[in-house]
Write a structure and sequence with these properties.
2 copies of one chain form a homodimer. The first copy, chain A, has 364 residues and is an alpha/beta fold. Chain A has helices at 18-24, 34-51, 65-74, 90-101, 119-123, 147-153, 174-177, 203-207, 220-227, 245-261, 263-283, 310-321, 348-362, and strands at residues 7-8, 57-61, 82-87, 105-110, 131-135, 137-138, 143-144, 158-162, 181-183, 197-201, 299-303, 323-324, 326-327, 336-340. The interface between A and B is large, with 60 and 60 residues.
Chain lengths: 364, 364
């Protein structure tokens, strides 16, 4: 068997931190082992740090980021609840779909792809929504939106935020920005394999939550016992489901690595790598897709030059260099590339490599 | 850091097959990489073999076994549908709860814990249920029920089966037995870490499925594109969510190992290890909990002797020998132990070890 060693420079997964990969290979612990309970406690604590929150109810949900989205809505939205969704890309669209399935009366506020969320339009879309939902870092377009401004203007609504591509890559302050419910993924800037959804919910949202959500698996009322409520560290756990032990161990290792480096340094590393990449792409004569001023450093969108076959370029990068970059999303599938330098890949050498390979394949 | 090396002889997770652990440490593939698409195809094929099915729609759902249960009900049960649930342990109870959350009119057919499902009582509980649900191997009691007999008597109902603790441990024939929908977990006899739910659904159930389930994440209509429909191997995939790539690679490795050994040999190994364990427990003067004739070889339930502190024994096993065994479930938490010899642990040396350790701690 040949083991493939890819450079994952697409929109995710990224190559995990070596510490996160190594942890996957350690002997497995039982999900009720005192050592695993302690590891889960520490994982939740470290997640609080990267979320910028003191929320007691902060945990890794046992499924991928999209299940985190579903957990966010199924626990806050029931039949007839008004949900305003800021849509500026694929994941905003998905939020609207998931909210509708929960029975929500969804008001979609459409934006052009590549632009950030317009806070005024969103908060004036309905007089008294139960929930306002937005994506912090749109994975489909490479755009950052101003969640702090949205939080300041949310009024009585609960603010529900997708931080899948922002967590541990750019500044994220759940408490200071007024995020009531947030979900993320492990496979982007956290530098861990996909499979868990870091999640946080604050007191305001907790008090207004759906008492008995349609989903048993994602019912936060039951999950509280699974990870232990605040103040019961090391205390009794209520069995809910079998924790994905290996993935939690890997997340623990990735978070430890990140916090040892220090969040500001990690953010700076993402900033520098993304800047290097974006400057290099422009220098190569390519045009960036996302509006200037809202570009994510960790995920760059760039237009496919006229006359170039997007898929052929991606295939050649993969086959000749073992480098994966992403196609565009939705309507931009054939006309945009997405290049992620996230987590362990947020390094100058990775930026140089993808630039050199693109230059080679494009003949520029 | 001291790395703990536990012997996981509880009700799950079990120690994974070495091949499954090794696969977790391999370089990560992108979830759209052609090599990963091929690996997913092979994984689904191998899952068909261990399920005993030719169902096109057989896949690893991206969450733990309990999410498999939720996927089974949310795709087949909507408001007002009658669901008969055979309850002979904790997981039957859970099925009833999940079915109710999906809006089902649930008829629970209660059985004493430790006994198998009474097929006559179950099929006569309602004249025309949409779904009849039962657990093949009750993890809470160590009991095997006769699913073939239930399938033969199901009439027009869809038969929905929990195979979490039976898959790859004892005989399981989804097609021959008339199972319409089945879900399982990876962390028991499949010998892979927890985190995925092997799932299968046949044509009858597919035609009667819920068109737009409340859950987006577990919507089988959308997941078809995620893994590729039958006959489209290697063909285009529709992006749904990011596959938990490392876990799928691990499941692929575990399944490969199992099928190289051969399912009959794997079943015989579970049978022999369980028999050795159960005979040794009886010889030690302990009393088995599950009714004779329906005892699972892979998961043994045994009564805690009078005057013995169940938790203290488990703690001593863990601390002195690094051996985990399980407490009882539900009403039997303090009075029953659950000892699993599953997957890689279904070996005579594991049986001897747990017997010797128990003898030592109990002073017998």
């Amino acid at each position: 068997m040949t083991i493939l060693d890819r450079r994952l420079f697409g929109p995710g997964p990224s190559n995990p931190y070596p510490e996160a990969t190594a942890a996957l290979g350690l002997p497995l612990l039982g999900h009720l082992d005192p050592a695993f309970v302690a590891m889960m406690d520490e994982t939740c604590d470290m997640l609080r740090t990267v979320w910028g929150t003191t929320n007691a109810r902060t945990l890794p949900i046992s499924a991928t980021g999209s299940a985190g989205m579903e957990a966010a809505f199924v626990n806050t939205v029931s039949d007839g609840d008004v949900v305003v969704v800021a849509v500026n890309g694929l994941f905003g669209q998905r939020m609207a779909e998931v909210a509708r399935r929960c029975g929500g009366e969804v008001v979609e506020v459409e934006h052009a792809w590549g632009t950030p969320v317009d806070v005024d339009r969103v908060v004036s879309a309905h007089p008294h929504p139960k929930v306002i939902a937005a994506v912090h870092a749109e994975t489909s377009t490479g755009v950052r939106s101003d969640i702090a401004a949205l939080g300041a203007a949310k009024g009585d609504a609960l603010l529900l935020v997708d931080a899948v591509t922002s967590i541990a890559g750019i500044d994220l302050q759940a408490d200071a920005w007024g995020i009531d419910v947030g979900y993320a993924g492990t496979q982007k800037c956290l530098g861990v394999a996909p499979g868990l959804a870091p999640f946080t919910i604050g007191e305001r949202a907790w008090e207004r939550r759906v008492e008995k959500p349609r989903s048993w698996y994602l019912d936060l009322g039951l999950l509280g016992g699974y990870v232990g409520e605040a103040g019961t560290k090391g205390g009794a756990r209520t069995y809910h489901h079998t924790a994905p032990v290996a993935m939690v161990a890997s997340l623990h290792a990735g978070l430890t690595r990140i916090l040892e480096e220090g969040l500001p340094a990690v953010h700076a590393r993402h900033q520098q790598a993304g800047h290097l990449l974006q400057a290099g792409l422009v220098e190569m004569g390519l045009e960036l897709f996302a509006d200037a001023g809202c570009r994510l450093p960790e995920l760059t969108t760039v237009k496919v030059p006229d006359g170039v076959d997007s898929a052929a370029v991606r295939r050649e990068l993969l086959e000749r260099f073992g480098i994966e970059i992403g196609a565009g999303a939705g309507p931009y599938a054939a006309t945009v590339w997405r290049i992620g330098l996230m987590g362990h890949n947020a390094r100058p050498d990775a930026a140089l490599l993808v630039l050199a390979a693109l230059r080679d394949v494009l003949g520029r």
